[in-house]
Amino acid sequence: MASYPGAIAQITNNLIINSLVHAFSEQNDSGDEITIQVKALAESIELLYGDNGCKLDEITKAQLFEPFYTTKRGKGGSGLGAHIVYNLVTQKLKGSIELITDQAQGKTFKINIPLTVDL
């Protein structure tokens, strides 16, 4: 893979922090869990990042990647974590990101990144 490892590290770091701060703020009877799966495709990698935390309401789903949107306003949230993830994936790495929320609990981010990015 010819890409930007720092950007990939920042993406996973921001997603983990978002899960810890937002998704796991409520009591979860099944235990807090984060999963990361990476699959090599023909010309890209697919990264699935998921947590089993709280569900997102419709407003949050619609605004999640917007700058300064946070569910923790006044409680330490800047509203930039998901926005930075979106920009790194789509601009820096020339990939795509999709939010999947059809599971019973939590959310999954499906990230597709080309194997080669012009450095």
UniProtKB/TrEMBL annotation:
User: Does Lipid metabolism count among this protein's keywords?
Assistant: no
Q: EC number(s) for this protein?
A: 2.7.13.3
Q: Which InterPro entries match?
A: HATPase_C_sf (IPR036890), HATPase_dom (IPR003594), His_kinase_dom (IPR005467), Sig_transdc_His_kin-like_C (IPR004358)
Q: Which reaction does it catalyse?
A: ATP + protein L-histidine = ADP + protein N-phospho-L-histidine
The molecular function GO annotations come to: protein histidine kinase activity
Which key words tag this protein in UniProt? Transferase
Where in the numbering of this chain does the Histidine kinase domain appear? 1-117
Write down the top EC class of this protein.
Answer: transferase
One Pfam family of this protein, by short name? HATPase_c
Official protein name in the record = histidine kinase
* Protein source organism: Colwellia marinimaniae
The top of its lineage is: Bacteria, Pseudomonadati, Pseudomonadota, Gammaproteobacteria, Alteromonadales
